[in-house]
Amino acid sequence: MLGLAALLVSADARIIDPLLKIIAGEFAVPKETAAWTVSAYALPYGLCQLFYGPLGDRLGKLRVMSWALLLFALGTAACALVPNLLTFILLRFLTGVVAAAIIPLSLSYIGDKFAYEDRQVALGRFMSALMLGQILSSSLGGIFGQHLGWRGIFVLLGTLAGAAVLLFASEARRFPEEKKPERSLSLAPFLALAKRPDARLVLVTVFLEGCLVFGGLAYLAASMKERFPAFGYDRIGLMLAGYGLGGLFYATFVKKLVPKLGEGGILLLGGGLITVGYSVLALLPAWWLFPIAVVLFGMGYFTMHGTLQTRATELDPKARATAVSLFAFAFFLGQAVGPALLGRLIAATDYRVGFGTAALCVFTLALWARARFATQKKEGS
To answer: Comparing C-alpha atoms, which of 237, 199, 242, 202 is closest to residue 221?
Structure first.
């Protein structure tokens, strides 16, 4: 049930990407203007993470997700009826506001239900649904945009979300959660959490991970197009689906990897795979190496991020949703900063230098975080 909701939100978040030029043409605006529909979704999606954590701890995670998913279904379906771009932008903004509840509250709910030693496997399975949504968004968006009409994809996503609401409502009744009116909706819990060294380490690491991974991800398609102009964006988009495919590989093997490598080993493995992927993308002597590098890149990201997610779910077991929402906010902030920083470096140099620098920084981050986590573990024991 949680996976279905994550799939729909993940697909909806990226569904505009393959449709941008088509939407710009219908509303007779430049594609840069149509791109405001992407920003209108992403901005509230990131900022509202801080709101839903305390609300979920106070009222119950399934209850909050049920209402959020209902509004998400209505807002998404309404996007199929928009008469102009301004209305579309407004609806995407409102949809982003409610979509922000789903993934952080799902992560914290899984944290409530699974022991720490089993949690990374459970989170890996949940993340596989999220990855599938990312894979489907580009392919379904292209199919609807070219053959069925771009508005139809919002009808489909809205209908599926409406069905998911019924599942959530049923599960919320089967597994009632205790309301905790004493939980504060202020910023005080976030500030208290940020003062703790273990929380700061996780937050700083995930912020830097978001910068380095998504900073490069934003330029992968452009780098391929500039190096191999004969490739169309449809073929490049298909190859970029390897990012989600790499995540599915991680979800498949995480159950075997965790006992063998341990938390620190998994973190270093993820950083190493991202580094290899970035290094290949920096050099890229042949086009067929691009999809291989993208798969490695995706495997590395989800492997590294899975460890950090698991840590985040244990930062404050008594207010788990609050802790996870702060984690998600730091991650979103990194995603927002990364493309701007790496874009400046690429503009001043080239893709080889930009991706190569990111590769070195990711591996350094993985080594540093692994050492710091180990030190904190010894100090804690």
So the answer is: 237
